[in-house]
Specification:
The complex is a heterodimer of chains A (229) and B (303). Chain A has 229 residues and is of the alpha/beta class. Chain A is built from seven helices and twelve strands. In chain A, the strands form three sheets. A seven-stranded mixed sheet of chain A has the order 2-1-3-4-12-11-10. In chain A, strands 5-6-9 form a three-stranded mixed sheet. Chain A has a two-stranded antiparallel sheet with strand order 7-8. Chain A starts with 6 loop residues before the first strand and ends with a helix. With 303 residues, chain B is of the alpha/beta class. The radius of gyration of chain B is 18 Å and the shape is globular. Classes of the chains: A alpha/beta (229), B alpha/beta (303). The A-B interface holds A 11-18, 34, 49-51, 53-54, 57-58, 61, 82-83, 94-95, 109-110, 113-116, 118-120, 135-138, 173, 176, 178 and B 1, 14, 17-18, 21-22, 24-29, 44, 47-50, 80, 84-86, 103, 106-109, 131-133, 261-262, 265-266, 269.
Chain lengths: 229, 303
């Protein structure tokens, strides 16, 4: 049995409404998170695109940086797109910037160039048999991934969609297309956790430590079965 | 989706989508006017989501008069080298050659702005020709849709720049959102007449009637000077706020910049807007719009 997951979207600045619209297409009504209190009862968080410097200042000012780290340690699933990816990365360069540091990756901000380098690409991913449309806007490049990080998709030789346990990271914007594949994948990650939480799983604490208790093979298989049924 | 089958431009192509995409990223934030690298640094530190590089802020343009043009590339480049957030710059209405210069400079967004002296009193820039996205001012729905048809990826109210008086920004935001609400109540066979009345392309009129909102982000500008001003326009439907003279013409720009950013995000929480308002010194001195002579109004530039 699946427990319905409560999804929160960080709504301090950026395209949080685009994420809400994507979730609405999947029949999910998210809550907007602006203060630590808003995190109560939330199972999974989306950190949207936007300006990471602006967002980070808000997180620190509101104490949300601490709350989100605790949320992750409790086993909360987190999905970051573009600026959200920057907030999640352990190392951020160009310029160097503080972050939540929850995923073992190093990022270079605005690495493709300024807005003129923004573009739409199409790449194959293991999430679907169809190519996935990827909208890159002043996007960062993932320069290094740690041993616990699984690269799900690459573009131009760079990782663009990666996962570390309960953390999913895209340097592009799946919320700016009509394709819900990546959000569905994140929901599976979140639901697996909610299921474990319902069972009061003593291992849950480990989930936030970066250890992948539910392998992506498991999740992929799960998605396949869901699609078939 | 910003899906309209454009008669004038293709609103579904990838170039259009990445333009509107950047506008989406700026939502919920504050875009601040800056005239040099130091101000840009202050704006970024205060939490601005973008800066607008220009030679003089609107209140100085108003005071000093003369022809106001695109800022010197040197200043813009210094600002681009200083901050990591997007950098916008203004061109005169219709001055596509200034726009081409800014595109070559690789600014992230161009504001075809009534704050500068218009270069063309009939034609605006055909913005589909550019790869860099444009924002344009509007006082009503017809004006907004004409700019979108020309390729604007973001609309902002014109307000009355450099006045420190929010009344015109409020008027324009209420007009645009009110006209959109009205369109959603009409029958399909009534839309051609509306298109004629508004002077706007039918395909965009139909899109508004269907969606009830603009196919691009709708921001507010022109006269916003306090945290409560920012909260007010956000309540009225502005997805982000431009602050021009309001910050660097106030007694403590750093504090005011931070306070307006905070109020813009938390506009629904009056306690936080109160907190943001409490720490402030004096706001810029404002102008009564009725004391401004017709010929000195900036909002009547462009059509």
């Amino acid at each position: 049995m699946e427990k319905p997951v409560k999804i929160g979207i960080l709504a301090v600045q950026g395209d949080f409404e685009a994420h809400a619209a994507t979730l609405a297409r999947l029949g999910i009504e998210p809550v907007f998170v602006r203060t630590p209190r808003d995190l109560d009862g939330v199972d999974a968080m989306i950190l949207p695109g936007g300006e990471s410097t602006t967002q980070w200042k808000f997180l620190v000012e509101e104490g949300l940086d601490k709350s989100l780290r605790e949320f992750s340690a409790r086993g909360g699933a987190i999905f970051g797109t573009c600026a959200g990816a920057i907030l999640l990365a352990r190392e951020v360069h160009h310029p160097d910037q503080a972050s939540l540091g929850l995923a073992d990756i190093a990022l270079i901000r605005n690495a493709y160039g300024r807005q003129l380098a923004s573009e739409v690409r199409s790449e194959m991913t293991p999430l679907s048999s169809e190519p996935l449309e990827m909208v890159f806007i002043r996007a960062p490049i993932i320069q290094r991934v740690g041993p616990d990080v699984e690269v799900l998709a690459t573009s131009q030789g760079q990782p663009v969609l990666v996962r570390q346990g309960r953390i999913l990271i895209a340097t592009f914007h799946p919320e700016l297309t009509s394709d819900t594949t990546v959000h569905e994948y994140f929901l599976r990650i979140a639901q697996t956790g909610a299921f474990a939480a319902a069972e009061n799983d003593p291992l849950l604490k480990l989930a936030g430590s970066g250890k992948d208790l539910w392998s992506s093979e498991h999740t992929d298989d799960y998605i396949r079965r869901q699609r078939e049924s | 989706m910003t899906a309209t089958q454009g008669s004038n431009g293709n609103y579904l192509n990838d170039a259009w989508r990445v333009k509107v995409g950047l506008a989406e990223m700026l939502k919920g934030g504050v875009i601040m006017d800056v005239t040099n690298a130091e101000q840009a640094r202050i704006a970024e530190d205060a939490g601005a989501c973008a800066v607008m590089a220009l030679e003089r802020v609107p209140s100085d343009i108003r005071k000093e008069g003369g022809v106001a043009r695109m800022a010197a590339p040197k200043i813009i480049r210094e600002i681009m080298d200083t901050v990591s957030i997007p950098v916008m710059a203004k061109v005169r209405i219709g001055h596509f050659a200034e726009a081409a210069v800014l595109e070559a400079l690789e600014v992230d967004f161009i504001d075809e702005s009534e704050v500068l002296t218009p270069a063309d009193e009939e034609n605006h820039v055909w913005k589909h020709d550019f790869k860099v996205p444009f924002v344009c001012g509007a006082r009503n729905l017809g004006e907004a849709l004409r700019r979108i048809a020309e390729g604007a990826a973001m609309i902002r109210t014109k307000g009355e720049a450099g006045s420190g008086n929010v009344v015109e920004a409020v008027r324009h935001m209420r007009t645009i959102t009110g006209e959109m609400r009205r369109l959603t109540t009409l029958r399909g066979d009534e839309l051609m007449h509306v298109a004629k009345e508004l002077g706007a392309p039918l395909d965009l009129v139909r899109e508004i009637a269907r969606a009830g909102k603009l196919p691009v982000p709708n921001f507010s500008a022109g006269g916003i000077a306090t945290p409560a001003d920012a909260a007010l326009v956000r309540h009225l439907g502005a997805e982000s706020v431009f602050v021009g003279s309001g910050i660097f013409k106030s007694s403590d720009p750093e504090k005011r910049a931070k306070a307006i950013v905070k109020a813009t995000t938390h506009y629904q929480d009056a306690k936080i807007v109160l907190e943001a308002s409490e720490v402030l010194g004096e706001a810029m001195k404002g102008l009564d719009i009725r004391q401004i002579e017709e010929k000195d109004l900036l909002q009547t530039r462009g059509w």
